[in-house]
Amino acid sequence: AQSVTQLGSHVSVSEGALVLLRCNYSSSVPPYLFWYVQYPNQGLQLLLKYTSAATLVKGINGFEAEFKKSETSFHLTKPSAHMSDAAEYFCAVTTTGNQFYFGTGTSLTVIP
Amino acid sequence: EPEVTQTPSHQVTQMGQEVILRCVPISNHLYFYWYRQILGQKVEFLVSFYNNEISEKSEIFDDQFSVERPDGSNFTLKIRSTKLEDSAMYFCASTLAGARTDTQYFGPGTRLTVL
């Protein structure tokens, strides 16, 4: 079975500061990992995905994530937070592509 | 850019009533999914559907739930007799080929409120 754990249900950063959202996964087979963002009253939008190619994955809006097998982690980062980054972020894992397992989400607040 | 659409955006129903949530996946996609998100909780997988059959379903997807592709464009989720605990946001998603490298494209969701 697969699962992801997102540490920190709420993260606050100042505008311009580093964003770090944590995700750890559990999987008995090589996982495929995803980060999605959800803006208020909207659906989930893909930020980036890891599919066993490069371990450092770059996504939209300046976000990137690094797959670290030794740490079973896939943390999401952005060097400089923008007000428009305020949203809910979900990490997800799949091994079959048929069923995704989502974390509980991290709500990002950006302080002006 | 193609997108998944869902109707209605908000559905209010009485406990025990049947509801049908509708989704139009991206036109050339072959795999379809339903997820739900109870307020404040994680997004949970309900069911995947391919070639007019259920591929996988979670323990949440019991006999009260059913899915159907009634025509070439719509993909529906039916809840036969709604319970209070069915109140949630329901998301439809689709992928091109169901491969694990495929991106799941999500619709904006239907908020179901059961009174």
Structure report:
The complex is a heterodimer of chains A (112) and B (115). Chain A contains no helices and twelve strands. Chain A has 112 residues and is mostly beta strands. In chain A, strands 2, 5, 6, 10, 11 and 12 form a six-stranded mixed sheet that branches. Chain B is mainly beta and 115 residues long. Chain B has no helices and eleven strands. Chain B has strands at 5-7, 10-13, 19-24, 31-37, 43-50, 53-57, 65-68, 75-79, 88-95, 105-106, 110-114. The termini of chain B are far apart. The mean pLDDT of chain B is 92. Chain A binds chain B through residues 32, 34, 36, 41-46, 49, 51, 90, 92, 94-105, and chain B through 4, 6, 31, 33, 35, 41-45, 48, 55-56, 58, 91, 93, 95, 98-109.
Please give the oligomerization state of what you see: heterodimer
List the helices and strands of chain B in order: EEEEEEEEEEE
Q: Measured on Cα atoms, how large is the radius of gyration of chain B? A: 13 Å
User: In terms of structural class, how would the helical and strand content of chain B be classed?
Assistant: mainly beta
Instruction: Describe the sheet with the most strands of chain B.
Output: 7 strands, mixed
Helical amount among residues of chain A, as a percent range? under 10%
Low-confidence stretches of chain B: none
Low-pLDDT residue intervals, each spanning 5 or more residues of chain A: none
Task: Describe the SSE topology.
The complex is a heterodimer of chains A (112) and B (115).
Chain A: E1 3-5, E2 10-14, E3 19-21, E4 24-26, E5 32-38, E6 44-50, E7 56-58, E8 64-68, E9 73-78, E10 87-94, E11 101-102, E12 106-111
Parallel strand pairs in A: 2-12
Antiparallel strand pairs in A: 1-4, 3-9, 5-6, 5-10, 7-8, 8-9, 10-11, 10-12
Chain B: E1 5-7, E2 10-13, E3 19-24, E4 31-37, E5 43-50, E6 53-57, E7 65-68, E8 75-79, E9 88-95, E10 105-106, E11 110-114
Parallel strand pairs in B: 2-11
Antiparallel strand pairs in B: 1-3, 3-8, 4-5, 4-9, 5-6, 7-8, 9-10, 9-11
